[in-house]
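A favour, since you know our structure tokens better than I do. It will help me judge whether the discrete encoding reads sensibly. The space below this message is yours for that.
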Amino acid sequence: MNFQNNKYTLRLADSGDNKGIAEIFESEGFSGGISVKYLRGEKPYESFCADGDSAKILVIKDNENGRTAAVGGAVLRTEFLCGKREKCAYLTGLKIHSDYRGKLRLISKAYSFLRQEISDCKCCYTTILDDNAAAIALLEKGHKNMPKYRYLGHYTTYCFHGGRKIIEVEKNNTEGFDELMNSHFSRKSLVPADPGCKGFGEKNFYCVRENGKIIACCFIGDQQAHKQYKMCSYGGIYKLLSKLPTRLLGYPEFPKSGREINFGVVSYLYVRDSDRRLCRDFLRSAAADTDFSLLLWGGFENDPLCAAMDGIKAVRYGSRLYSVEWGEPAEISGVIGIEAALL
């Protein structure tokens, strides 16, 4: 699809677009007290695909010089909705190369193109960082030929470590986890139905049992082969905190500017009755078995585990969760269990 007097072409991406997409990620960064670049390595197209069953990634190419001006799209995966397995789409958000910001008039065309590609999905949703005020204002206001962004609530990502062996944890014995998938995780909305998704990275399973039954468990994965966080700079109170021995205080270590963060991702976290002490002791004991500088876990505002996580020293950053609707809204009910590892 061509637009703006044939200056640009909008089309589906493939592995041949990796270099151009990677350049866009390198040109971006998170704003706020902690400025971080979120990267997807040298093969970002494959990284998108790893996060689900497939991906519909769009690129905008400059016809004059062949450069990739923008990238966005959706990762498609099977997730639980109202207890059923449904095909869902997570919108990755539009990223525009810094050289092309303010020059592209493409929003309605991109949304129209994407809608055709994901029309068979039961649900479409996305998250936007709290600090991205411009995107929030634009999308919440709504525009002609764009889908409706219906605000569902707040999502918090916890960055923590404080690893110390407090209780005995069992490693890589998943007996009983399938039962939890059916009795617990399937009752949440937007939980990936496949815990073996490549996007979780190389992972280990940790659990605590009582009388042979799991009372706390999670996977901890290394996805740095296809996702990276590079520290850029610190501002405000974080500038001071970054100079302190935060690891000794029970907080994650703050990496120096310009370095990639050695992080792990926690997924499918279960704690019986969302017990705060059990949650704290279990995660700290599991973290002690890893070599990561920090661990990431995310929870929606109605997840009882968010209250349990208050017992752990952590750096938090927030996002807003939206249902993206072209027509009738999808029913997203109950506790929402989105995994931060796949956002």
Observations:
- The first strand starts at residue 2 and ends at 3.
- DSSP finds eight helices and 16 strands in the chain.
- The helical segments are 18-27, 44-50, 107-117, 133-141, 177-183, 237-241, 276-287, 304-309.
- The first helix runs from residue 18 to 27.
